[in-house]
Specification:
This protein has helices at residues 71-80, 92-95, 122-136, 180-185; strands at residues 98-104, 107-114, 142-149. The chain is α+β, with helices and mostly antiparallel strands.
């Protein structure tokens, strides 16, 4: 009988017990955004973008405090609730990236907050937002997208940081003599 592959050496040790998967993250106090598929979307309730840990009445998106004023605004809200971050794969509303959403006449203004000003996917994000809104509401004449960025500070686990130092950058190399000290001093 032919054998293809590598043989494991025979041992008298028992096999390792299977590792249990980690427990799911707590979801208490968080509201999930409903995904509105197909024709059911016409009869479903309006999408509310609730703040994490909030009571559901407070929203984290400017312009979403009140119920939709028109069917156009409701269609735009539903479309925005389905736009996914291209890198993470979760909706931008769920991640808290949608900071402003207003519909005035046939002009939609969307404020998107990125994690870094140098986001390599910002052009793709803008295009995804624009195409999703235009596909969901063809009567929209213009979509204005305003990108902002907020760099969040690292968690220092309760230890005091350095006075006057906002960010820390590590400089490393596997080879000596490449200018690590020079870069650090400059």
């Amino acid at each position: 009988m032919p054998f293809f592959g590598r043989r494991r050496p025979a041992t008298n040790e028992p096999a390792e017990p299977p590792v249990a998967p980690p427990p799911p993250a707590p979801t208490e106090g968080r509201k999930r955004l409903p995904i509105m598929p197909g024709p059911a979307a016409a009869t479903a309730q309006p999408v509310q973008m609730a703040a994490p840990g909030g009571d559901g009445e407070r929203t984290r998106t400017k312009g979403m405090e009140n119920p939709p004023a028109s069917p156009l605004e409701e269609a735009v809200r539903r479309a925005v609730a389905t736009i996914k971050d291209p890198e993470i794969g979760r909706t931008m509303a769920e991640l808290g990236m949608i900071k402003e959403l207003t519909v005035t006449d046939k002009v939609v203004r969307v404020g998107v907050e990125l994690t870094t000003p140098a986001c390599p996917l910002k052009d793709q994000i803008k295009e995804d937002v624009r195409t999703t809104i235009m596909a969901a509401a063809p009567e929209v004449e213009r979509v204005d997208i305003h990108l902002t960025a907020r760099v969040r500070a690292a968690n220092n686990h309760g230890r005091p940081g350095l006075v006057g130092v906002k960010n820390t950058i590590a400089v490393a190399s596997g080879k000596g003599g490449v200018g690590k000290s020079t870069v650090t001093a400059n």
